[in-house]
Specification:
The structure holds two protein chains of two kinds. Chain A has nine helices and five strands. Chain A is α/β, with parallel strands linked by helices. In chain A, strands 2-1-3-4-5 form a five-stranded parallel β-sheet, sandwiched between helices. The longest helix of chain A is centred in the C-terminal third of the chain and has 29 residues. Chain B is an alpha+beta fold. Chain B has three domains: 164 residues; 32 residues, no CATH class; 149 residues, Heat Shock Protein 90. Classes of the chains: A alpha/beta, B alpha+beta.
Chain lengths: 221, 383
């Protein structure tokens, strides 16, 4: 990590929560460069301020946080999105991660966990909860079982499956490293690789869908 | 609620009126040949009065009862039995219609409409029996009447039964839909309001410390419980009695217990899902009891297509090697034995991994019955 302060943008439609989180982060040395209450504003402001990390809530009204995540990570390679949601770890969290978010944290996490998660996200690590690991594992298995895209769908290596299962069972990266007799860094790499494959596949699928439905053409005036 | 067979009752009423008009014409045409024409007019008058009564009765709720339908059958059989007094021998030979004509077929239809195919067929059979008794001999006409009477009663009864069943199903589906919509509305509002505030209270309270931390812990417990409740969608059971395993397992979440599941449904026969849920609950209570109050637990639900895997892990002190045997000798392996027994009865396997300082991990595998055609956790088929 560089000495430069990590710039963070907080996106949440709940002012009480948004300001609380912004204050927590500011108190702990992060530079909160912007806040936003809806997805449209989030994308617009992120383009202007290019923060290192966007803390993204998923329940944002008409345009969802998933959509905003897709656009921000697509347009701004230097910006990482960390989903912070009260959601019951369900399909919306999985969708956000497929859209490009590099991690997920529940809102009930402590301030220390939040700070640590933002720091790791800024450093390029994937922030996985056990719940997210369960979702990602399930998604790979769903794709493997679906008959239509077995050829193009990404697959987990045996090691990656092993690592993801241990994450889903609540082991920390260090515990996993000890158990599998590999380095801590290797564990992180495996976890990141499972996310990257999923996100890449998602982008390819979206592009294919757009081409098939003529959405890649500029609308005629 | 209106009887779903109401259109059939209306049909019965129309049939009664039309068959009465038919009887009037038949008696007018044949009255010159009757041995007792006066009695014929009296019987026709009685049929008219009874027609008015049944039309009124079957048009409203008060007459759609057993007693009126039974009386209808009795009256039709009774009036039909005056035929031997009215029709001449020559008319019997010529197969002139009995005095009640087709008017007498209506009670079979009414009985079917009221009480289903069996009642319709029995009433039709009774009317056919009286037709035979009045004719005094078996003939092609009598046999044909018997088939038509029992058949009509049976078919109308079938239609009435189906109408009632599909109406009940529709009502059930509508109720389920309304409940789901209401649940989603509540979930959204809880999610946007209460949950956000609880999360904030918990966080701030922890930071402030002291008494506030106690309040924060309480808020945190409620937050997790509420989130689990909101996330656990009502389990929709499919036609073949399968339910999604996830909602029930998710309700076991607490601040110390993390539940991880796939994003798609994990469909299992209802009784297996119930049994698995209670096994997991038992394993978790085992954690609370033996791993200490600060131990955390994780539950992972995996759908491998042909089998479902449930893992329950805790970060407690674990069970030192040899302790299991010792405990078994002391008869203290109650919970482990009970879990093992229940998993075995589901045809599943159970693995226990433990060691000092490593926590305890149960891994439970249950084969999905009738697997091979089903896709793993795939919602495509269910949608």
């Amino acid at each position: 990590m560089t000495e430069q302060r990590v710039s963070v943008m907080v996106v949440d439609d709940h002012p009480l929560w948004r300001d609380g989180v912004a204050r927590d982060l500011a108190e702990r040395g992060f530079e909160v460069v912007a806040t936003a209450g809806d997805a449209e504003a989030a994308v617009r402001i992120a383009r202007a301020v290019r923060p290192n990390v966007v803390l993204m809530d998923l329940n944002l009204g008409t345009v969802s946080g998933v959509d905003a995540t897709l656009r921000i990570t697509g347009e701004l390679p230097g910006t990482r999105v960390l989903v912070l949601s009260a959601s019951g770890e369900h399909s919306d969290v999985l969708e956000a991660v497929k859209a490009g978010a590099s991690g997920y944290l529940v809102k009930s996490a402590s301030a220390e966990e939040l700070v640590e998660a933002v720091r790791r996200t800024a450093a390029g690590d994937a922030v996985f909860t056990a719940g997210l690991a369960g979702l990602v594992l399930g998604e790979y298995r769903r794709m493997a079982a679906a008959p239509d895209d077995t050829d193009s769908a990404p697959q987990l290596t045996e090691r990656e499956t092993e690592v993801l299962r241990l994450v889903a069972k609540g082991l920390t990266a260090r515990q996993i490293a000890t158990r599998l007799v590999i380095s801590h860094r290797t564990v992180e790499n495996h976890v990141q690789s499972t996310l990257r494959k999923l996100q890449l596949h998602n982008r390819v699928e979206l592009a294919r869908y757009a081409i098939e439905h003529g959405l890649d053409q500029e609308p005629e005036a | 609620m209106e009887d779903p067979a109401t259109p059939l009752w209306r049909g019965t009423v129309v049939l009664r009126i039309v068959t009465f008009l038919f009887a009037v014409v038949a008696i007018v045409v044949n009255h010159n040949g009757y041995q007792r024409p006066t009695l014929a007019w009296l019987v026709l008058a009685a049929m008219g009065v009874w027609s008015v009564l049944t039309v009124l009765g079957y048009s409203g709720d008060w007459g759609r009862r057993r007693w009126l339908v039974a009386a209808d059958v009795v009256v039709a059989c009774g009036l039909m039995s005056t035929s031997t007094l009215i029709l001449s021998d020559e008319q019997f030979l010529r197969s002139v219609p009995l005095i009640t004509t087709v008017w007498a077929c209506e009670p079979a239809v009414a009985a079917g409409t009221l009480a289903g195919p069996a009642a319709g067929a029995v009433s039709g059979g009774l009317l056919a029996l009286f037709t035979y008794l009045n004719r005094g001999e078996m003939s092609v006409d009598v046999a044909r009447d018997a088939v038509l009477l029992t058949g009509a009663g049976f078919l109308v009864g079938m239609a009435a039964k189906m109408a009632r069943i599909s109406s009940a199903r529709l009502a059930q589906a509508l109720r389920a839909e309304a409940a789901t919509a209401e649940r989603e509305r509540l979930a959204r509002s809880i999610h946007d309001g209460v949950l956000q505030v609880l999360a904030r209270v918990r966080k701030r309270g922890m930071e402030v410390g002291g008494e506030a931390a106690e309040l924060a812990a309480l808020a945190g417990e409620q937050e997790v419980a509420l989130r689990a409740l909101v996330a656990a969608a009502p389990s929709e059971s499919t036609v073949d009695g399968e339910v999604d395993l996830r909602p029930a397992i998710q309700l076991l979440a607490t601040p110390r217990t993390q539940i991880s599941t796939p994003a798609t449904q994990v469909m299992l026969p209802a009784q297996i899902a119930v049994e698995l849920t209670s096994v997991v609950r038992e394993a978790l209570s085992n954690v609370a009891e033996h791993a200490g109050p600060t131990a955390r637990a994780w539950v992972l639900v995996e759908d491998l297509g042909d089998e479902v895997v449930l893992s329950v892990r805790d970060d407690g002190p674990g069970i030192p090697a040899g302790r299991i045997d010792a405990a078994a000798e002391e008869g203290r392996m109650g919970i482990a034995q009970s879990i093992r027994g229940r998993v075995a009865s589901l045809g599943g396997t159970l693995e226990l991994q433990t060691g000092p300082g490593e926590g305890t991990e149960w891994e439970l595998r249950v084969a999905r019955p009738g697997q091979g055609k089903k896709k793993s956790g795939n919602e495509k088929g269910a949608r």
